[in-house]
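2024-03-11 09:14:02 DEBUG pipeline.ingest accepted 1 chain
2024-03-11 09:14:02 DEBUG pipeline.ingest length=312
2024-03-11 09:14:03 DEBUG pipeline.predict start
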Amino acid sequence: MTDKITEDAVELLAIDLLEEQDYSYIFAPTIAPESDSPERLSFSDVVLIERLRNAIDTINPDIPLDAREQALKDALNLPSQDLVTNNEAFHLMLADGIEVEYNVDGNLKGGKVWLIDYDNLNENDFLVCNQFTIIEENVNKRPDIVIFVNGLPLVVIELKNAADENATVKKAYTQLQNYKKAVPSLFYYNSLLVASDGFDAKVGSLTSGWSRFHAWKSIDGEIESSSTTPQMETLIRGMLRKDVLIDLIRHFTVFEKFKKEDTETGITTVTTEKKIAAYHQYYAVNKAVVSTKKAVSEGDGKGGVIWHTQGS
């Protein structure tokens, strides 16, 4: 890299890599409120609602319209003011579907509305936007890159300029933490946070401290990328490949509860940590699953977390 490389150039390089992965690209101001083609009613809207509605209708044609609309409302109106509580509630909706009830010929039936088509990944809407402005409580923030799947802002990427010796991955991480405090509603829907200087890159969860952010070091799980290959490129070609991203979100994400008692007051508090598999765990488990499937039947086909670790 030369000193002429700017943060904007780093941003565009990342977008180019995502477009190579068959993501659609939109410059966020072109769909902002009061633009010629708005997809948001206000800058406080963090979900692209019509994209989500269209996805729900397409994925769940056998569910009556009223039930689909109720599922949409459930996804948009999460149950708490607490960031992590809402994130966990939404993750369950995303991974397991949204329970709905509806009448058929006078009989009450139950079903699930899915927000992602897990059987046909290419039928989902993968969109990358840059300069996506959010205004919450009169605070204005603009993350560098937001990745939407079916209108849901699942990945936030913050970039710094590697040519600037004062711009580091740690500073990108710190900026993400600032965003969480300033515009928490964006992160109700977040699955992954990425901090990068355009060369080095690390990924973590909503609750991950700096020490828990890690590089994604392989594109295919077979070999690790060379140290001369930008980590950002490996992360996008490997972790943000559509099938890997969705698999990682659905099967390799867990929420753990931890109790801690104050020795002076005797008061016990419960904290929640969101954990995401590291690249070596992800590929190792999937290889084990493939091997197991050769020896046993497919089972009932139900989803669920197939990974767990104490370490990430």
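2024-03-11 09:14:41 DEBUG pipeline.report Residues 7-251 form one domain.
2024-03-11 09:14:41 DEBUG pipeline.predict end
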